[in-house]
Amino acid sequence: MAGVGLTLMEPVKLLEFLKFAGKLKALRRTGWVKNGIENPETVAGHMYRMGVMSMVINDPQLDMNKCLRMSLVHDLAESIVGDITPHCGVSDEEKHKKETEAMESLTSLLDPSVGKEVQNLFQEFEAQATAEAMFVRDLDRFDMILQAFEYEEAEKRPDFLQEFFSSTVDKFRHPSVRELVTELIKQRAERASASIGGSV
């Protein structure tokens, strides 16, 4: 007698999906690799802290559960196409096409209703037309500059990752994230000043 629940094919497909997701635990973020960071952050590590931020930065006007889920799926396509950055020589249009095709492939492995939700979250993030998508984009950028600051501190090389900070100037929109950015920039300036003073 057939059991109630998943069919034989469903766990096979789900396991395949989870294997793809697991690749992000080993996929290093391209920007850090290109800057010679030793043992650079992975894509999964990046999405994890974004997820944590979406839990602890509370905004009653946003669907924070959606923000958490969006944080966890927005880079899933990189398990197939890799971490494509503006320095990779790939146009925005081609990047979007590759990632959209990758997400279609990945979500085909899921139950249709779940796959549709994952696909919708990805498309919503890409379109940047909702308050939740814009908030998650802010988290995406903030985690990047926070990570850059942490690398500068770890390597005792103030300002050597300035390009990441420069790329985000005037791009943060959510007030809570802007407050975090202001504090981070303040701490970074203080560390740089202390480093210069200590080297005299």
Short description:
This protein is mainly alpha-helical and 200 residues long. The protein contains 10 helices and no strands.
Topology:
Layout: H1 9-23, H2 30-34, H3 43-56, H4 64-73, H5 78-81, H6 92-107, H7 112-127, H8 131-155, H9 162-166, H10 175-199
Following the backbone from N to C, one meets helices and strands in this order, namely HHHHHHHHHH
Mean pLDDT: 92
State the fourth-level CATH superfamily. Answer: Hypothetical protein af1432
Helix count, per DSSP? 10
| Share of residues in strands | under 5%
> What is the quaternary state of this protein?
single chain
Largest sheet at a glance? none
CATH C-level class: Mainly Alpha
Radius of gyration: 19 Å
Number of strands: 0
Percentage of residues in helical conformation: 55-70%
